[in-house]
Amino acid sequence: MTEKGMFKFSKIPKLKSPSLVVSWSKDAGKFGAKVIDFLNKKLGSEEFCQIEPTGFFSLGGVKVEDDIAQFPESKFYCCERDELVIFKSDQPRYEWYKFLNSVLDAAEYYGKIKELYTVSGTISSIAHTSPRRILAVFNQPELKKILQGYGLVDMEYEGEPALNSYLLWIAKRRNIPGVSLWAEIPFYLAAQEDPKAWRRMLEFFDRRFTLNIDLEEISEEIKKQNKKITSIRRQKPAINKYIGQLERGFMLNEKEQEKLAKEVYQFLKERS
Description:
By secondary structure, the protein is α/β, with parallel strands linked by helices.
């Protein structure tokens, strides 16, 4: 049972059976946060609830940026028109089961969740010029069948369960259909940003929920980034060679990957 004191509601949204979209603030290519922030901006979403951080986060080593303490945040937003609840949060360090149940409790406070979508980026060995795929893990075969025509690719993963996987499992136990979505991000953009991956995920949500959002702003970001990477390819033959190999489907060795990622990161950082 979730404690009422864990939540801080600021308004009462009018929702019947919303879909829930979840992302975590720290991600490859700043992916999840960028997708959520763009959705909130374009949909005019309003914040309506927070989960209190006590017991879930380490507050002893709070990060400081520009002389301002960056406390962990776990916030819910809603778009009543589109029946959407959007959750953006830092990843909890403790009490995962309790925290993730609280996420579903707060989202269902005003209506049963219709579907759950988690949003993340996954590092890939593709080139930045390649199409971005969305890899997917479902918790129910029925939802997988519904989303067959959306170009999702089954994700094959072996390793420690991710927070998203745990949330899918909890949702399944509560009979909430869910899917974990992972957009491919070229490894040499993982420390920077990948607007092409943002657009791919936003296109999915735009189609799924009939949002009719304008993505021209992100298309311009893609053009700017491509122009910068074209510039470094012209200036540095080795970088051009490495990216060319990726474009032809060849793998780079560890040393080549490290050099490509370092050079592109520094180049983009200096021109941001």
